[in-house]
Amino acid sequence: MSRPKNGPGMAARLATYRSLRERHLTYDQAAAEMGVTRDAIRWYAKALRENGDLPPARPPKPTPPPQEPRRDAAREAVLGHLLTWPSSLFSAWDLGRVLGLCDASVRRVLRQLVAEGVAKQVDGTRYPSDQRVPARRYQLAANENAVVGRG
Predict the structure, then answer these.
(1) d(CA 12, CA 19)
(2) How many other C-beta atoms lie within 10 A of the C-beta of residue 147?
């Protein structure tokens, strides 16, 4: 691509496009701003990419919050519910619905509590009249000393 007559040199055009790219303009917006074609902008982007000097086209996504506080909150909610109703049986779906958590996170917490001996798994059936549909239910373990290790 040749330089336009009396126009800025290639280094200046690349620097201009780089500053426009840092403002997260699209190819069409940058072309209109610089007074060149979209193909010229694509060529500038290619040249900057080859030099390793091409800024990102979009602003960086915000970093998600850490997962541990949510997992701890789910554990505390499930354990609190089991402590409130120690003799009742709950499925993961029941707990998720009542606590406003997805049943996958509730199942994960319940597996951990069973492994620690805080809760126990009771295999049964979903419907008392139909013994063919199995269901897993959970309740607080009889060992109250196991609850001390929560948190």
Answers:
(1) 11
(2) 18
Owner of token pair 């919050």: 65
Question: How far is residue 104 from each of residues 63, 71, 96, 116, measured CA to CA in Å?
Answer: 23, 12, 8, 19
Q: Is 120 left (phi over 0), alpha (psi -120 to 50) or beta?
A: beta
E-assigned strands of the chain? 119-127, 130-140
Query: Do the beta carbons of residue 70 and residue 102 sit within 8 Å?
Result: no
Rounded Cα distance between 32 and 36, Å, is 7
Mean pLDDT by 10 residues, the chain (151 residues): 66 90 89 93 90 79 71 89 90 90 90 92 77 82 56 43
Q: Which two tokens stand for residue 130?
A: 């139909």
